[in-house]
Design a protein that fits this description.
The protein is of the alpha+beta class. A hairpin with a 7-residue loop joins strand 9 and strand 10. Helix 1 packs across helix 3. It is elongated, with a radius of gyration of 32 Å.
Length: 353
C-alpha cells in the first residue's frame, strides 16, 4: 500500500531543492550563508532543516487534500443538495390487463403504487410507484420474429394480439410505447435498427396475402420532460438528469414509440394483425430475437413514496434535528427529500414549501 505521507514528503523535498537552486542563482550572497551555492554534498544541518520543513508542509498538504471532499460536499449540499441524493431502487414492470375483456383504451396515471415480493431475512416488502402515465390498449405483443425478405433485407415481425370485444374507435393507437426488454446487446441493436435503420413499414391482416404500407416510424423514448424518473430540482440542469438516469438505469431509454397506427382500424373481431418492419441493414446473425424482446404496457417504477414525519419541537438550542418517518421504525427506509414543512403553535398554523 502506498504511503501518502512519504509521497508528500518527497514532493516537498524536491520543491525545496529546486527552489534552493533558483534562490542561489538570484541571491548568491545570501545563499552562501546557507551553503546553497555549492555543488556536491549539502550541509547536514541545512538538510535537516529542509527535511523538517518538508515533513511539516507535507502533512499539511495531506490534511488539506484529505478534507477537500468534505469541503466540496458541504458546499454542494448548500447550493445543489439534489446532486448528493441517494439514487432509489429502479425497475421496469409490465402491466398485464385482461385482454379478452378490454373494449377501449384506459390510462393508468403516474404514481400507481406497486409492491414487491417479500425480500431479505425480514421479508421486507418494497413499495414502488410508476413514473409515467401508461395507456392500456386492447392489444398485446404475442410473438416477435426476425426473418429475411426475398431481396435479403432483414424483417422484424410483431404479431399484435387483439381483443375480440375491442371498440377501435375508442382505442388510442397514435403512439404505442414498446419496451425492448431483451439482453443488453439485443435490445441496444433493436433500438438502433428501429429508430435509425427503418427502410419500410407494413401491416398485414390475417387471411390476406398483400400487406398495407404504413407511413409510421419509431421514435426513441425517455427524453421528454415528463419522462423523468425522479423529481428534478428547480436549479438542476435537465441535461445532468438525463446523464445521471442513463448511467444509473439505462433500461429507461430502452423504450421506443411506434407512431402511425392512428389512421388504421383493424377489422372488427380480428384476433391479431402483424406489423412488419424492413431494415436497411442486415440484422447480426449472432443476436437471437425472442418473443420477450418487445413488450407493450411497460413502465419504469421507482422506490419513492410519501410519508409524514414525526413532529419536532424546535427549542432554538440546536441547529440540526433528527427527522424520522412517522410510524415507521425500520432500518430499510431512508428519507429522500422534504417536500413541505408545516409549523404550528398554540394560536395558528403556517405551511412552508
Amino acid at each position: 500500500m502506498e504511503d501518502l505521507t512519504l509521497r508528500y514528503f518527497d514532493a516537498e523535498m524536491r520543491y525545496l531543492r529546486e527552489a534552493a537552486k533558483e534562490f542561489a542563482q538570484t541571491h548568491p550572497d545570501r545563499a552562501a550563508m546557507l551553503d546553497l551555492d555549492k555543488a556536491g554534498t549539502p550541509d547536514p544541518y541545512v538538510e535537516r532543516l529542509f527535511e523538517g520543513f518538508a515533513f511539516s508542509m507535507g502533512r499539511l498538504r495531506e490534511k488539506i487534500d484529505d478534507d477537500l471532499p468534505e469541503f466540496t460536499e458541504g458546499l454542494v449540499s448548500m447550493l445543489w443538495p439534489h446532486y448528493l441524493r441517494t439514487i432509489p431502487s429502479l425497475s421496469v414492470v409490465a402491466l398485464t390487463p385482461a385482454l379478452h375483456a378490454m373494449k377501449m383504451a384506459e390510462v393508468v396515471p403516474a404514481g400507481l403504487e406497486v409492491y414487491s415480493r417479500p425480500v431479505g431475512p425480514k421479508n421486507t416488502v418494497c413499495r414502488y410507484r410508476t413514473t409515467q402515465d401508461v395507456v392500456l390498449n386492447p392489444l398485446s405483443v404475442s410473438a416477435v420474429t426476425m426473418t429475411t425478405e426475398p431481396d435479403g433485407c432483414s424483417l422484424l415481425r410483431l404479431r399484435m394480439a387483439c381483443s375480440s370485444q375491442a371498440d377501435w374507435s375508442h382505442a388510442d393507437l397514435s403512439r404505442l410505447s414498446l419496451y425492448l426488454g431483451a439482453d443488453a446487446p439485443v435490445s441496444s441493436q433493436l433500438h438502433l435498427m428501429l429508430t435509425k435503420r427503418q427502410a419500410a413499414l407494413y401491416m398485414r391482416l390475417p387471411g390476406q396475402t398483400d400487406r398495407i404500407r404504413l407511413n409510421g416510424y419509431f421514435s426513441p423514448g425517455g427524453f421528454a420532460e415528463d419522462d423523468g424518473l425522479w423529481p428534478k430540482g428547480d436549479t438542476a440542469f435537465s441535461g445532468y438528469q438525463l446523464l445521471l438516469e442513463y448511467f444509473t438505469f439505462r433500461d429507461k431509454f430502452m423504450f421506443v414509440h411506434f407512431n402511425g397506427l392512428d389512421g388504421i382500424t383493424p377489422p372488427a373481431g380480428a384476433e391479431y394483425f402483424d406489423i412488419e418492419v424492413v431494415f436497411s441493414t442486415p440484422w447480426p446473425s449472432d443476436l437471437p430475437v425472442t418473443d420477450d424482446a418487445v413488450r407493450l404496457h411497460c413502465v419504469p417504477v421507482i422506490n419513492l413514496f410519501t410519508l409524514e414525519a414525526d413532529p419536532l419541537t424546535i427549542t432554538g438550542l440546536e441547529s440540526e434535528y433528527l427527522l424520522r418517518p412517522k410510524r415507521l421504525q425500520d432500518a430499510h427506509t431512508e428519507i429522500y427529500s422534504v417536500d413541505s414543512v408545516t409549523g404550528s403553535n398554540r394560536t395558528n398554523d403556517a405551511e412552508y414549501v
